[in-house]
Design a protein that fits this description.
Blueprint lengths: L2 H4 L24 H7 L26 H17 L18 H7 L3 H6 L1 H13 L3 H14 L4 H16 L11 H10 L9 H20 L2 H16 L1
Helix pairs in contact: 6-7, 7-8, 7-10
């Protein structure tokens, strides 16, 4: 027998525990209870990040809208890599260099750039360093200086500017501000020599920066071995 009953003790009303009679009806639940038990608020395991759009508070980089926008930008950049007027062939027409010519290229950058075969090999090396635009710009300027037709000079100057001078171009060459300002002034009335200063600056850059690495490259050393082997066989 319970000690309290045996001594005639009766507990007060608030002491009695509430007897569980089953789940409460929906009408009697508080708003918080309905929210907590609602199946729509259950988060899937292992994924606590909401599926947000571009206007959400989180600005997460996994947003599907941002993914689509990035893909569109990639396609636009890829399409912009195409030159509007391909006046420069992938490979200049030339004869096979002799062993003496190949050796002379290591002694004089001017001799290398004056030789079509030398330019082709050097251009191949620049492509491996992602700086082929320097050679393309130099060649485009050489073509422009040969032009005498005023209409073609205007057209080719505009294309050279858009392809190699504009900061929006993926093939923009590296020029200082003074040369760029000079070009911007000359583009109001372009001539065959509008880009002479820029061409000289890029020529100097290739001579000082890329040319020493070219002489130590596998491309140049393999060419020497190939020409030497051909000369010995003949």
């Amino acid at each position: 027998m319970c000690f309290r009953k045996r001594n005639g003790y009766t507990p007060p009303d608030y002491f009695h525990a509430r007897i569980y009679t089953g789940p409460e009806s929906t009408e009697r639940q508080t708003p918080m209870s309905r929210h907590e038990t609602s199946p729509t608020t259950v988060q899937p395991a292992g994924n606590n990040r909401p599926n947000a759009c571009c206007f959400c508070w989180c600005c997460c980089c996994s947003c599907s809208c941002l993914t689509v926008r990035n893909e569109d930008q990639d396609r636009t950049r890829k399409a912009s890599r195409d030159t509007k007027l391909d006046t420069i062939p992938n490979c200049e027409t030339c004869t096979n260099p002799t062993l003496d010519e190949v050796y002379v290229w290591s002694q004089s950058f001017d001799r290398l750039m004056k030789n079509p075969a030398g330019r082709n090999v050097f251009r191949q090396f620049l492509r491996t360093e992602y700086s082929e635009e320097n050679m393309l710009f130099w060649l485009a300027c050489e073509e422009l200086k040969k032009e005498v037709n005023k209409g073609l000079i205007d057209e080719k100057s505009r294309i050279i500017y858009e392809d190699y001078i504009s900061i929006l171009s993926p093939k923009e060459v590296s020029l200082d501000s003074r040369v760029r300002e000079n070009i911007n002034r000359k583009m109001q009335e372009p001539t065959a020599h509008t880009f002479d200063d820029a061409q000289l600056q890029i020529y100097t850059l290739m001579h000082r920066d890329s040319y020493p690495r070219f002489l130590n490259s596998t491309i140049y050393k393999s060419l020497i071995q190939s020409v030497s082997r051909s000369s010995s066989e003949s």
